[in-house]
Amino acid sequence: MSDVPFSKGDRVEVRRASSLPGGLRGGDAFYPATVLRAPARSRAQILVEYDSVASPTSTLTPLREYVPWVTARPAPPNEFGRRFLPGETVEAYAEEGWHQGTVLEVSEDNSRYLVFLEATQEEADFLQSCLRLRREWTGGGWDPPFPGQKLLPGKPSPVTESKPGKVRQLKITFSKKSAPRFKKGKTVEVCSDDEGYEGAWYTAVIVDYLGNGKYIVEYLTLKTDDETAPLREEAREDYIRPYPPRRLVPFSLLDKVDVWYNDGWWTGVISKVLNGSTYVIYFSTTNEELVFEQLDLRIHQDWINQKWVIDSQDAFHQLGPATGNLSSKTYFHKGMKVEVRSDEDGYRGSWYTAVILDSIGEDVYLVEYQTLKADDETELLKEKVRGSDIRPYPPEVQQTCGFARLEAVDAWYNDGWWMGHISQILKDLKYQVYFRLSNEEMVFKHDDLRPHLEWMGGQWIPSSKIEGPRLFFWFDEDSGLYLFRASLFRGVSFNGNQLNIDRRHGIRLASSLSN
């Protein structure tokens, strides 16, 4: 068994019976898979897990099975942008596998191909990205070889294998000759391009194929203007995809998800986990956050090259392996609503609302402030900002019961948020707030304050739950003392006592504070 060319973790393709509807007996196709276990000495089989072939017991679980290793071959490298000629033997990706066929006709822009499939003895049209040249794995290389690969001994050049008599360049449009990609009665999802609804997906059924890549669809959740019947409309093929499989996976912070809202599925990102079944979802297209139950969520999947691909959260963020902190290098994306910290004298530590316009370098972003204007006051201020001075826009937390004395808050002042502590509770829902950096106090209305949150480890943490002791203080004009309050992690304080430090006479413990 030492001659077996596969090891655990290898990417392979396995030859098995074609799954195309109406496929002929004996028709085979290649299905992408991963080797889970190399063969034992006594067996000539390998254990594989298919990328998209589902288990017969559960459509949510990929099929695992033992197959003779001689039915597998290495996964061929991708060959992007290749054009094909009529008469060439190709493999077309459909129903989760690669099926052999022959190119019959080519569209004028070389983006679509009419292919005769051997498994079904029928014609179907495919995008260029769903085709590849038919190659055989001989054990030592691919035949015909890929560019840069040496020709195998005794094999003719690929040029001599072409069939000049069948090669013809046609100017065609796929209308009557092209087979529909979606059959009548098939449940699909249709993407909206209407203003205000861009990117939302709506469940529908294929009613008819009009040709030229156009269909009549009937929506399952949308009705006509008079609310008397399901809405029907024409939809282009590029805006239609199969109905995605339901995958039962746990949701985590920053997962990309689809949310059921207004009769359709909208793409967002989990920005906060409220409890085991409730989540705050951030929508980058509208720069807003909404709360949803777990039953209204599904993991986001993209339909790429005729297969479903789960969008990994690594595409949205990156966790540092040692600290667990978010790396702003990949977390902040174009269009994201954020807050930017100022480091200018007189403004240091204040936060200003902005939108990411672009990433312009290593951990450097171009932002547009939403409350600050350029010097000429004609447009919003744009500037380059380091990733370390950016954080996501915090969720809105309603403080309906009022703020407590010594509580950490953010105060809205001079078009930004400034961190301080409640030093005194006044009448008419007003508070006196002490700002440590400037050593001054100001009076604010309740509506101009918000609870202070810290962005740590990829989530928003109330200041009372930040681990480690913190010392809050302000200067009392009457006594000439600096008044301190020490607070332990998770909001536990030193018996509610106030620790006073006199610059001249040292430290003494004062009586308990009250609200």
Automatic annotation (TrEMBL):
Q: Where is the Agenet domain?
A: 4-80, 82-139, 180-248, 249-305, 330-398, 401-457
Q: Where is this region: Disordered?
A: 144-163
Signal peptide positions are none
Please give the superkingdom of this protein's source. Eukaryota
Q: What Pfam families does the record tag this protein with?
A: Agenet (PF05641)
UniProt cross-references to InterPro entries, sorted A to Z: Agenet-like_dom, Agenet_dom_plant
Q: What is this protein called?
A: Protein AGENET DOMAIN (AGD)-CONTAINING P1-like isoform X1
What gene is behind this protein? LOC116209161
